[in-house]
Amino acid sequence: MLPALSPLLQLLVLVWAFALGCVVGSFLNVVIWRLPRGLTIGRPARSVCPNCKRVIRWYDNIPLLSFALLRRRCRDCGAPIAWRYPLVEGLTGLVFALLVYRQGMQVGTGPGQLVIMALVASLLIAGSVIDAEWFIIPDEITLFGLLSGLAASVALPGLHVGAASYQTFQSLTGLRHLDGLIASLIGAVGGGLLVILVAEFGRLVFRREAMGFGDVKVMAMLGAFFGWKVAMVTFFLSPFVGLAYGIPLLVIWDEHVMPYIPFMGIAALLAMVFRSSLCAYLEPLEYLVRQVVF
Q1: What stretches of the chain show up as alpha helix (H) in DSSP?
Q2: Counting Cβ atoms within 10 Å, is residue 27 exposed (0-12), middle (13-18) or buried (19+)?
Q3: Which of these, 31, 28, 17, 231, lies nearest to 105 by C-alpha position?
Q4: With 90 as the cut, is the pLDDT of residue 219 above it?
Q5: N or C terminus: which one in the chain shows less Cβ crowding within 10 Å?
Q6: Is residue 142 scored above 70 in pLDDT?
Q7: What is the pLDDT of residues 78-90, one digit of tens each?
Q8: Separation between Cα atoms, residue 265 and residue 273, nearest integer Å
Q9: Residue pair 134/271 in contact by the 8 Å Cβ criterion
Q10: Separation between Cα atoms, residue 239 and residue 243, nearest integer Å
C-alpha cells in the first residue's frame, strides 16, 4: 500500500509514472515492430530507421520529445516516422499513471501488484497493436504472460487469495503461495475454456469461426494473473467495447472482419483498474458455483 502523500507529491508520483510508462512504451514499439516480422527483441541491439537502416541515435529516441523535435522525420533520410510510436508511448504513460492513481492512491494496492498490473497492461498494449495491424497475437507475448502469471501468483498470492470480491478464495490448502498457484491455474483454465466454449458455439450456430485461438491465449493469460473473475468480466465487457468500433465499420465500410484483441485489451484494463467494483457483480454466480461444487 502506498503511504499517504501530499497533493504535490501525488502529482510528482503521477508524472514519474507517466514518464516511466513512456519509456516502457518506447520499448513496446520495438516489440511491436520486431515480433511480427520474425525478429528477436534483442537483435539488433540498437533500433534502426526502417527506411535507411541507419542506427537511431540515443537523443533521437527519447519518448515523445524526439518525435516532436524531429518533426516526424528521420534525421538521416527524412522518411516520415509513423504516428504509432508517440501514440504507444503516450498511451502506455497514461495507463501507468491511471494504475498508480486508481489502484495505488485510491484503493491502496501494494507496489508488487502495481508492477504486475503494469506488466499486464504492457503486454496487452503490444498485443493489441500487433493484432490491429497483422491479425495475430505472438506466442512470445501470450505464453510469456501465462508463465509470468503463474509465477507472480506464487510470489504474490494476494492477487488471488483473500476476501476481496476479485479474489478466488480466502484459503484452500492453508498455504497461501500454493493457494495462489491453484487459483492462478483455475483462472487460466477457466478464462481459456470460456472462449473455447463460446467459439465452438459460434461455429455451430453461425457456421464460421467466431473467435481465434489468440483470444483463448489472452484470456488464459489474464486468468493466470488475476483469476477467473477478472477474466470473466473482461470477456463480457469486450463485445460492448467492440461495438463502438464494429458498428460504424459494418455500416459505413461494410467490413465484417476486425481485430478483437484491442477490445479485449481495453476491457481487461477496465477490469484491472476497477476490479473490486466490477467483480462484485459476479458474487451471485460465485455463490451458486460454491453451492454446486462444495
Answers
A1: 7-34, 65-69, 84-99, 111-134, 139-155, 176-206, 213-226, 228-253, 261-273, 275-279, 283-293
A2: middle
A3: 17
A4: yes
A5: C
A6: yes
A7: 999 999 999 999 9
A8: 12
A9: no
A10: 6
Q: Would you list the domain boundaries of the chain?
A: 1-108, 136-294
- The pTM of the full predicted model, rounded to 2 decimals, is 0.93
Q: How far apart are CA 232 and CA 282, in angstroms?
A: 9
Q: Report the alpha-carbon distance of residue 84 to residue 49 in Å, rounded.
A: 14
Residue type, 161: V
Res. 293: pLDDT tops 80: no
Model confidence pLDDT, tens digit, residues 162-175: 989 999 888 889 89
Q: What is the DSSP letter of 163?
A: S
| Cell of residue 245, nine digits | 468500433
User: At 198, is the pLDDT very low, low, confident or very high (cuts 50, 70, 90)?
Assistant: confident
**Residues linked to residue 161 through DSSP beta bridges, in sequence order:** 169
10 Å CB burial of residue 49 (0-12, 13-18, 19+) is: middle
Q: Are 78 and 41 in contact (CB under 8 A)?
A: no
- Residues whose CB falls within 8 Å of the CB of residue 280, separated by 6 or more in sequence, listed in order: 165
Q: Is the peptide bond before 44 cis (omega within 30 degrees of 0)?
A: yes
CB 164 within 8 A of CB 174: no
Would you place residue 3 in the very low, low, confident or very high pLDDT band (cuts 50, 70, 90)? low
Cell numbers for 219: 484470456
Rounded CA gap, 142 and 140, in Å?
A: 6
Q: What pLDDT band is residue 294 in, cutting at 50, 70 and 90?
A: low
**Cα 158 to Cα 170: distance, rounded to the nearest angstrom:** 10
Dmax (CA) of the chain? 67
Q: At what angle do helices 7-34 and 84-99 cross, to 10 degrees?
A: 140
Residue 109 has pLDDT above 90, yes or no: yes
